[in-house]
Design goal:
3 domains; Rossmann fold; alpha/beta; 615 residues; PUA domain-like; 26 helices; ATP-binding
Length: 615
């Protein structure tokens, strides 16, 4: 039995515990499940702002000396003691554990804490087992002359130590990884007599890895930025039972900044997650294994511009992987990985499935299968859009070059068959196996995340979509570049009119684009037209008379435009103009615009609403 199966050194020979037990896992329980089953002591976590000057150490010796001075300053010592006494502990006396980054820092802090009345002692890897046991006895025991209030640890208390009496954990170091964070938090989670809860104080400096804190607390290893932001905002909703999570305002901002700056499609992060899973399984993981074992979302691999597909990742980084595809085959796998495998629509995936069995009559067979299996009827607009997707006619002219060879279909009388170039790819059984695995992965994602459609659309409430996703799923004949869409765009052919709102506006954008779109309530939104519009402008009239004109207006909102990677909007359903509209002159310009009040057909779910509207 082990509480730490995923260690950072388990890629070394003889260190992989899964391998030692022939990859046979009898039972596994993670933090969230253990809290739900009441197996652990509840915790109250407080993310507290550390001094402004506490940041990741620099590289030069001068910077390291300077950083040490801040880490052990009187100001920091007093702040730690003040917060520890304010937030308290459960029990007759404090029995605490403090985690530091460096041995010299730990010794200096201990000296200063002791001078101010605390009873502390430093333990590190160089101390003997006897010295550790004696220190633990002094900490865990009753009040006495040689009792300890805190043990300050650098590297030995993250794992393999059992002191149930610990009732306060103080973290004075950057979070290195979610695994280490949970190991350190876990030191206080054992149940003990007269201990109702453990208090966890995390002093959050200006660290690059701050984003790992909500990942660790939530247990969500998908590395989806918007999900992580929501965990920071929602706090205790994530953790079952009586535990609570609080971040003060500045530490919350520091974490948001770290999330914005992080690259979750970073090769190092991908390789680390891949290695964890491979160690657990004892073989190269299949795509489905990432979901089955709760590892990193494979879409992060697809998003990485130097990869684009799991196949490409394995070719680059897995010595045991020997399959090699042709250039065209590789590009086809990348196209399906990037554009379709997220499962946002079933049509293209089931079309590809048909092509593995049939050569002709593909669209007819697809229509029949969708109707029988999914009770989904494909209208003319949808059919045209799917065909355009699979013949490279959907992208804008500049984007067509990227996947020029990804033409899967060709016209045959009144239906479509497999194109010659794709037919040649299908002669390769290794290509077919990779394609089938990828398509099955996409279908499973569809069933879990995207099958509960909103009304008669191909969209799911509160799921996230890019501009391109929206154009595709609204069945537009061609994609549009975001710059041409702006805040909204009307498609005459489908009579659909999506509105895209960036709820957090950046300070440095021009006054004409600084529209004050805002929610008044969960079912009411004030949105501003593009600049240079009046009450008589065609787009404004289409909005105000949408119902009479048979125009379908749909709302997409995103919280954070600043994020270079997560370019997705929450889908919030259909909206109807209430009739309240007024023309005005935009501040600091001579341009007019129109403010329109909208009613949402479905009020925004409370947690999403709070996340969007709160800073």
């Amino acid at each position: 039995m082990t509480a730490t199966p995923d260690k950072r050194d388990d890629n070394l020979e003889g260190r992989n515990i899964y391998e030692i037990f022939n990859h046979q896992i009898a039972y596994e329980i993670r933090l969230q499940d253990a809290m739900e089953e009441d197996l652990l002591c509840p915790f109250h976590y407080f993310g507290i702002t550390d001094l402004d000057i506490i940041a990741d150490a620099g590289k030069s010796s001068e910077e390291k000396v300077e950083n040490f001075r801040y880490l052990t300053s009187e100001e920091r010592v007093e702040n730690v003691m003040k917060q520890a006494e304010y937030f308290g502990y459960s029990g007759d006396r404090v029995k605490g554990l403090i985690f530091c980054s460096r041995i010299d820092e730990a010794k200096e802090l201990s000296k200063k804490f002791n001078a101010k009345g605390w009873r502390t002692l430093v333990l590190s890897g160089s101390d003997s087992e006897e010295a550790r046991a004696a220190a633990i006895e002094r900490l865990a025991g009753e009040e006495s002359e040689d009792a300890l209030d805190y043990i300050i640890s650098v590297d030995i208390f993250s794992e393999g130590v059992d002191v149930p009496e610990i009732n306060q954990v103080i973290m004075l170091r950057p979070t290195e990884s979610p695994i280490v964070f949970i190991q350190q938090l876990g030191r206080g989670l054992r149940k003990a007599e007269n201990k109702e809860y453990v208090v966890v104080l995390d002093f959050i400096g200006n660290y690059r890895n701050n984003f790992m804190i909500p990942i660790a607390l939530s247990g969500d290893r998908s590395y989806n930025k918007d999900n992580i932001r929501r965990y920071v905002t929602e706090g205790g909703r994530v953790i079952p039972g009586a535990s609570t999570i609080h971040f003060d305002e500045i530490s919350r901002k520091r974490i948001f900044q770290a999330i914005d700056n992080a690259n979750f499609s970073d090769i190092k992060l991908i390789r680390e997650n891949y290695t964890n899973l491979k160690n657990k399984l004892g073989h190269i993981p299949a795509l489905a294994d990432f979901d089955k074992y709760g590892e990193m979302d494979v879409l992060r691999i697809f998003d990485n511009n130097s990869l684009g597909s799991y196949y490409k990742f394995l070719v680059k980084y897995e010595k045991e992987y020997t399959i090699r595809l042709s250039e065209d085959e590789e590009k086809a796998i990348e196209f399906i990985s990037k554009k379709l495998a997220s499962g946002k629509r079933i049509h293209e995936l089931e079309l590809l499935k048909r092509t593995l069995q049939y050569r002709h009559g593909i669209i007819g067979r697809l229509r029949k299968y969708l109707s029988e299996k999914y009770h989904c009827e494909m209208n003319e607009h949808c059919m045209e859009n799917v065909i355009n997707m699979m013949t490279n006619e959907f992208p804008t002219s500049a984007a067509k070059k990227t996947y020029a060879q990804c033409v899967f279909l060709k016209k045959e009388q009144d239906d479509y068959g497999i194109s010659d170039v794709y037919g040649k790819m299908l002669e390769n059984p290794e290509f077919c196996a990779i394609l089938e695995e990828l398509v099955d992965f996409g279908i499973s994602r569809y069933k879990v995340n995207y099958s509960y459609h909103y009304q008669n659309t191909n969209l799911v409430l509160y799921q996230k979509y890019t501009y391109e996703d929206a154009c595709r799923l609204l069945n537009w004949e061609r994609n549009e570049v975001p710059l041409n869409i702006g805040g909204y765009k009307y498609d005459k052919k489908t009579k659909t009119f999506p509105i895209f709102i960036n709820y957090d506006k950046q300070d440095n954008i021009s006054d004409t684009t600084k529209y004050e779109d805002h929610f008044v309530a969960e079912n009411r939104l004030i949105a501003i037209s593009k600049s240079g519009r009046s009450m008589d402008s065609e787009d404004v009239q289409n909005f105000l008379n949408a119902t009479e004109r048979g125009i379908d207006v749909q709302l997409f909102v995103r919280k954070n435009k600043d994020d270079k990677i997560s370019k997705e909007f929450y889908y919030l359903g259909r909206v109807i103009a209430t009739g309240n509209a007024k023309q005005f002159v935009m501040p600091n310009t001579d341009k007019t615009a129109v403010e329109i009040e909208w009613e949402l057909e479905t009020p925004v779910r409370e947690d999403i609403y709070q996340y969007i509207v709160n800073e």
